């Protein structure tokens, strides 16, 4: 059924997949009334997908990355399913210059505010394209939601030369640049106008670029302890996505001991300079010589990984550091965990989250130790001195299985959340699932600890990881303790009651 119009969807392909392997077992097409049938199935659990040109391919009762599997067998009601398909949305973007002409080869970036509100309001990149010779770019088959658009480009006629004056102004009428411009005509991402796309909608927007005098930024380049030149880096990000070097000016050696960035458009930048580097947030509005002491010093972070049981670490261990504040502009930092050790050469001060993976398997950071003091969870505070820490990790090997019930019957499509004892300090210990057609669920990769399992009906729009939000549902949940002896499977002894999100 079309989620927008309520009309039946004819000639859609419905595929039956093995729940265990996701391999396609059968496929059929819907008839003239939108009906489909998959008769004679053995008692088992299956996944269902549906696809048709012009619609977004979906799993049955899909929410975020979750869906409900279909359970067949005695007593299971599987003969009256309604499968909703959402038409894909389209967005057409036209980019023009000061003369109203289309700008060719402009980089058009599309961002989306995720519908999953659990891990903060960070906006993520949803795609990018280049404008054609008429200045137009298109995005198709988009999911319904809230989007933002940003454009970067260079005026085709621009020329950039070294500055001839002390204040950095080159005096060249063609020394111009386009600031990064967001819809609707602003250069500050906080002021960007969201674009709301409904299923099947076809929207058109226009973004006009205006050339402004380019800036010249001169930065000192001292030599490091080993005699090498400390090259500065000028970075610009939009909603946490770092732009390519072409949008960050072109560094040229202006004179011995300094570098000049030319062709820089006014805007917000992050400048890393010196050895060891200092990181400065720079709102560049005029050409200038950058103070070498501007910004905050970065420090080296070295860490050691160990397992709680003393067992060897998995192969291919990798470490990720994320700003705890999801709205921060800086992207995630990555490092290999070779033989249980990892290093970050230049970390800005702040509160970070430490995440560890071993060859695709999540390893939960249950505690960190800094200077002989232990801290529960995966939060790491980087200050102004080099940091040495030890992180204790634990593989999530237990699946918690149970059923959601309402009025004594299994309930499908419910959001099930495994909530750790201290939610604020243990974001990486949360687990979620969606109940299947018989109300069953499986919360995978749980690590030893004390938890509460809650089931929230129509709860997919909740900010489920916030303690003040999830805390309202804890009294109605089921407590569960996972130990190292729990094994691969831990069944709950009682059903989890479905709670209303209101």
Question: How would you describe this structure to a colleague?
Answer:
The protein has 502 residues and is mainly beta. It has four domains: 1-87, Carboxypeptidase-like, regulatory domain (Immunoglobulin-like, Sandwich), CATH 2.60.40; 88-295, Sandwich (Immunoglobulin-like), CATH 2.60.40.1120; 299-395, Immunoglobulins (Immunoglobulin-like); 398-500, Immunoglobulin-like, CATH 2.60.40.10. The protein is built from one helix and 43 strands. Strands 26, 27, 28, 29, 30, 31, 32, 33 and 34 form a nine-stranded mixed β-sheet that branches. Strands 35, 36, 37, 38, 39, 40, 41, 42 and 43 form a nine-stranded mixed β-sheet that branches. The longest helix is centred in the C-terminal third of the chain and has 4 residues, at 467-470. It is flat, with a radius of gyration of 27 Å. The model is unreliable at 164-170 (pLDDT under 50).
